[in-house]
Design a protein that fits this description.
The structure holds two protein chains of two kinds.
Chain A: E1 5-13, E2 17-26, E3 30-40, E4 44-45, E5 48-49, H1 52-70, E6 76-81, E7 87-96, H2 106-116, E8 125-132, E9 135-137, E10 140-142, E11 152-163, H3 164-175, E12 180-186, H4 187-195, H5 198-203, E13 205-210, E14 215-221, E15 224-231, H6 235-246, H7 250-260, E16 273-275, E17 286-288, H8 289-311, E18 323-327, H9 336-344, E19 348-350, H10 367-385, H11 387-401
Parallel strand pairs in A: 1-6, 6-12, 13-18, 18-19
Antiparallel strand pairs in A: 1-2, 2-3, 4-5, 7-11, 8-11, 9-10, 9-11, 13-14, 14-15, 16-17
Helix pairs in contact in A: 4-10, 6-7, 6-8, 8-9
Chain B: H1 3-6, H2 28-64, H3 66-73, E1 80-85, H4 91-98, H5 111-119, E2 124-132, E3 136-143, E4 146-152, E5 160-165, E6 170-171, H6 178-182, E7 186-188, E8 194-195, E9 198-199, H7 205-218, H8 220-225, E10 226-230, H9 234-237, E11 239-244, E12 247-253, H10 259-275, E13 282-286, E14 294-298, E15 324-327
Parallel strand pairs in B: 1-3, 7-10, 12-13
Antiparallel strand pairs in B: 2-3, 4-5, 5-6, 8-9, 10-11, 11-12, 13-14, 14-15
The chains are: A alpha+beta, B alpha+beta.
């Protein structure tokens, strides 16, 4: 009997690190995480590959480490996609229900979906995701309109697209390891899948994944993703700000950020000083704690403001009852939830991985790769359930073109 | 709605990006994995190819010279022949008939040829020859059982008694007990036709077999007196004539009453004639007429010298001066013995 077990690698090529998880997918149903690999990233700027060889070396090192820890070889890869080059737009379409008894058929659904996805992209750009918002039948939201009675069926898609070259670069980095990319998944979607519960998504939630080079976000409403986006600003900019403001090297600034950085200013005593290293060795210097907090909090607030601005009218505190869920390496910054709550005007919390995730993978930095596996598994299950409608679509097409 | 609107051209997605990559763009580990994958495929192809070639060779050798395969399979010589039979043939006969090559192994034997050798003997109705590894040849035989004998003259050689089975096969009986074989009546009134090494089957033997079987079972004393069974008139009027030590000709009918009834009447007639004083030698009894009357012919007239009819409970009807009589067996349950005909 042929084994139906697959070993899937979830890979996120981030600006500061490359993370790899290996999941053992049995019978297309159950998933076990059996390997993990990490490596400091090189050749990646703000989520985009800038040096192919360096990025390949770093990614392949992480892949090898994961394979070694899993004791097996990866069959295919689910790859996270991020970067300021990704953009999105919303397009919707509506059709009149074709049957005489006003019962929605598979053909109606297929037609409205194809129309909603049919908007042309600028040259050189290609689709990464078509995220469907809930169907509307005569104005009411329905999860599946098939066989319901109505007159007008509407469907809308949030389409995420990016330049072909940059997307291909990421794929070729993986192909350089001689593994096929089976799914390309937006980082924010991956994080949202694992951190936002179905109830959160139904009530409305904003998931913000603040990485080193980029900040990815996804807004959920009515149970599905309404809008996604990438801001090319991340935790690395906090380090850079400290480096410039305090005249430090990047390493020193990073150290200060991790030890004393905050997203909200809590220090009252402006004269309070902190040591750079704390070992009183030559070169050890003192810095104003208030100053450090001021720099980091200003940048964090700015990031949130940019996200809010990008969301525009799509975001409203009333329709985001589940609040803001924060994740990513920079989400470990103290007070970041407080800052987010103040900027967005809703409650904010740090995302927590589900209970089935092992302790060593509960760090916010792993939420994207965890989400890749979960999203990939869900999409596989949905694809497996789809043939019923696809068959109807094929028959419909046959008659439509006759 | 126009067709173009309903079926808009699909937008390009990331899946349209070709995922083939040249080894140049690979890292060392990628190249290693590629080499491993290629090695796997080559290995798989080689294994499949080797298996295919092996099967091809096997088939071609099997078609041309199967002994090459069999010789390779096993070289252990046959130790014994295991015989199962429902008749009288023994292992010595099977060994002689099969005539196996010396030190032959099981796989060297052509079983269908061996089976044909066994079936060449008419006494063997069916034969199954199988290999019982590692070194036993199993032979299972179903034999024909003889119902009569027939004298066969072949050229200048003195006539020989052959056996005839229920299905009409004529064969030289092997291994039968001489005393038992001599109890079998001879068959007469048939024409033997040569067919290959043996003879063509004789028609009517099923009925003869039924008659003799019924006689042997129910009237063994009468059966023992049967000497010759003639089928001379079988094809004409469906009668079987039997010559016994007591009666020159007893005629049985196939289409009339069953053999059991006919034999019962015969038994009655023989008993009645034995009781007569003096006993009247019987010449012919015709049981094929059917009904309640049996024509019986005597060697001498039925009427005795003193002009009285013989004393018998049966009623010879209208005795004739030529020694023939019609026997009417008593009606059912009328006699004291209450024998049922």
């Amino acid at each position: 009997m042929i084994s139906r077990t697959k070993f899937i690698g979830a890979v996120e090529i981030g600006t500061s690190k490359v993370s790899v998880l290996i999941g053992e997918l049995s019978q297309d149903r159950s998933l076990h995480i059996i390997g993990v690999g990490e490596c400091q990233s090189r050749g990646v700027i703000k989520g985009a590959v800038a040096d192919f060889r360096a990025a390949s070396d770093a990614t392949h090192t992480a892949l090898m480490a994961a394979e070694q820890s899993a004791g097996t070889r990866i069959d295919e890869v689910y790859l996270a996609q991020t970067g300021g080059h990704l953009e999105g737009f919303y397009n919707e379409a509506a059709v009149n229900v074709s049957s005489a008894d006003n019962m929605v058929s598979a053909l109606d659904i297929d037609t409205v979906c194809r129309l909603a996805k049919s908007k042309n992209l600028p040259d050189g750009r290609m689709v990464v995701h078509h995220l469907r918002r809930p169907y509307r039948l005569d104005g009411r939201i329905v999860p599946d309109p098939l066989h319901l009675v109505g007159q007008r069926l509407e469907a809308g898609y949030w389409t995420v697209h990016g330049p072909e070259g940059k997307i291909a670069d990421n794929i070729h980095v993986i192909r350089g390891f001689n593994v096929r990319v089976a799914e390309l998944i937006l980082s924010s979607l991956a994080s949202g899948t694992v951190l936002a519960s179905p109830e959160d998504r139904q009530n409305g939630a904003l998931v913000i994944d603040i990485g080193a080079g980029t900040t990815d976000f996804v807004l959920y409403r009515d149970g599905s993703a309404q809008m996604t986006g990438v801001v090319p600003v991340g935790g690395g900019h906090l380090t850079n700000d400290l480096s410039l403001g305090l005249r430090l090297t990047e390493g020193q600034a990073e150290k200060l950020k991790l030890r004393f950085g905050r997203a909200t200013i809590t220090t009252k005593d402006r004269a309070e000083k902190v040591w750079l290293n704390g070992d009183f060795a030559i070169g050890d210097r003192q810095f104003s704690r208030y100053g450090i907090e001021q720099v980091t909090s200003a940048r964090v607030w700015e990031i949130f403001e940019v996200v809010k601005k990008k969301l525009g009218p799509a975001f409203s505190p009333e329709k985001t009852a589940a609040g803001v869920i924060l994740t990513g390496g920079t989400a470990k910054l103290p007070g970041i939830d407080e800052a987010a709550a103040k900027v967005f005007g809703v409650q904010a919390r740090l995302g927590e991985a589900p209970g089935w995730v092992a302790e060593n993978l509960r760090d916010p930095g792993f939420s994207s790769v965890l989400g890749l596996l979960q999203y990939g598994l869900t999409s596989r299950a949905e694809a497996a359930a789809a043939p019923r409608r696809k068959a109807a679509g094929w028959v419909s097409k046959l008659f439509a073109t006759a | 709605m126009s067709q173009l609107t309903v079926n808009p051209p699909p937008t390009r997605t990331w899946r349209d990006i070709p995922q083939n990559v040249t080894p140049k763009a690979m890292t060392r580990e990628g190249k290693k994995r590629l080499a491993f994958a290629v090695g796997n495929i080559v290995g798989l192809v080689l294994v499949i190819g080797a298996a295919g070639w092996g099967i091809y060779e096997l088939v071609s050798v099997w078609e041309t010279n199967p002994t090459r395969i069999t010789a390779a399979a096993s070289n252990v010589p046959i130790r014994d022949i295991a015989l199962r039979t429902d008749g009288v043939l023994d292992k010595a006969w099977v060994t002689r008939t099969l005539d196996l090559p010396k030190n032959a192994s099981l796989m060297e034997l052509n079983l269908s040829v061996l089976q044909e050798r066994l079936l060449a003997t008419g006494q063997v109705q069916s034969a199954v020859v199988t290999r019982k590894f590692p070194d036993i040849l199993a032979v299972t035989i179903q034999e024909r059982s003889p119902v009569a004998r027939v004298m066969v003259r072949s050229g200048a050689v003195a006539p020989q008694a052959y056996m005839v089975s229920r299905d009409g096969s004529v064969y030289q009986g092997v291994g039968y007990d001489q005393a038992l074989a001599e109890t079998l009546p001879f068959l007469d009134g048939v024409k033997l036709v040569r067919e290959g090494e043996g003879f063509a089957r004789i028609d009517g033997l099923e009925q003869v077999s039924d008659l003799l079987g019924t006689a042997r079972t129910n009237t063994p004393d009468i059966y023992r007196t049967f000497r010759v069974v003639s089928l001379a008139r079988f094809s004409v009027d469906g009668t079987i004539a039997v010559k016994s030590t007591e009666v020159d000709e007893i005629t049985f009918g196939v289409v009339s009453d069953g053999f059991f009834k006919q034999l019962a009447r015969l038994d009655y007639i023989l008993n009645e004639t034995r009781r007569q004083t003096p006993p009247q030698p019987l010449k012919a009894i015709n049981l094929a007429v059917g009904g309640s009357q049996v024509p019986v012919a005597f060697d001498t007239p039925v009427v005795s010298a003193d002009g009285r009819t013989p004393r018998t409970s049966a009623k010879p009807v209208a005795p004739t001066p030529f020694g023939t009589a019609l026997f009417s067996p008593p009606p059912r349950n009328s006699s004291s013995s209450k024998r049922d005909f």
